[in-house]
Design a protein that fits this description.
189 residues, 8% helix, eight-stranded antiparallel beta barrel, Lipocalin, 2 helices, mainly beta
Length: 189
C-alpha cells in the first residue's frame, strides 16, 4: 500500500484514531546486508540479523513517525570466521561483547506514495553521525499467519567507514560501505 493511501484509509476508518501505532521489528525477518569492494577484485558481503527495533508510525502525518534500532556488533555474520575475528580486532571495531550499533531517526521526509527519506543518528564504534536512509514501504496489512497488523520496509544507504574510525586499509578496501536493509514489523500488543 502507499503511504498516502494508508493514511487516507485509516483516517476514514470507523475505529478510533491514535496519533501513532507502535510496531516492533520481527527479528526473524529483519536484516541488514552490507558490502564493500575488496582491493578491486571482489565485492564482499556481510549481514546483521535478529536485531531489535521499534517503529512509531503516525499514518495521519508520516513525517511525525520515528524508528529506533539497536544490535550488538558481535552479531555480524561474515561467512568466514577469520574475517569476523579481524573485524572485531583493533584494526576495526575492537568490539567488546556488549558493544552496540544504534540508529535513531531524527526526521522523516515523505518523497512519494511509498517512499521517504529517513534521517537519523547512527552510533557505530563509539561515533555518532547522521545518515539518510532511502526507505520504501513494501506492504502493510494483516499478516496471513499471525493474524495481526504487519508492515514491511526496505531501505538503502551508504556509510563512510573512516568517519566511524573504521578506515583500516582504505582506499584499497573501499571506504564506502553499502547497506541494504529489509525489515518486517508487527503491531505491538
Amino acid at each position: 500500500m502507499k503511504f498516502a493511501l494508508v493514511a487516507a484509509a485509516l483516517a476514514t476508518a470507523p475505529i478510533a484514531a491514535t496519533a501513532a501505532d507502535n510496531y516492533v521489528l520481527d527479528p526473524s525477518h529483519s536484516q541488514i546486508v552490507f558490502n564493500y569492494n575488496h582491493l578491486g577484485y571482489s565485492t564482499t558481503y556481510g549481514m546483521f540479523s535478529g536485531f531489535e527495533g521499534q517503529i512509531s508510525w503516525d499514518r495521519d502525518d508520516v513525517a511525525k513517525s520515528s524508528v529506533t534500532v539497536s544490535f550488538p556488533v558481535r552479531t555480524m555474520m561474515t561467512g568466514w570466521e577469520e574475517r569476523f575475528t579481524h573485524f572485531m580486532a583493533p584494526d576495526f571495531f575492537d568490539a567488546a561483547e556488549d558493544e552496540m550499533v544504534n540508529f535513531a531517526s531524527t526526521s522523516i521526509e515523505v518523497t512519494g506514495d511509498t517512499t521517504a527519506k529517513i534521517t537519523g543518528d547512527l552510533t557505530l564504534n563509539g561515533v555518532t553521525k547522521p545518515v539518510v536512509l532511502d526507505a520504501k514501504l513494501n506492504q502493510e496489512g494483516d499478516h496471513p499467519m499471525a493474524g495481526k497488523p504487519w508492515a514491511g520496509f526496505d531501505a538503502t544507504t551508504t556509510v563512510v567507514r573512516s568517519e566511524f574510525n573504521l578506515g583500516a586499509f582504505a582506499p584499497y578496501v573501499s571506504d564506502e560501505v553499502q547497506l541494504m536493509i529489509s525489515v518486517e514489523a508487527m503491531k505491538a500488543e
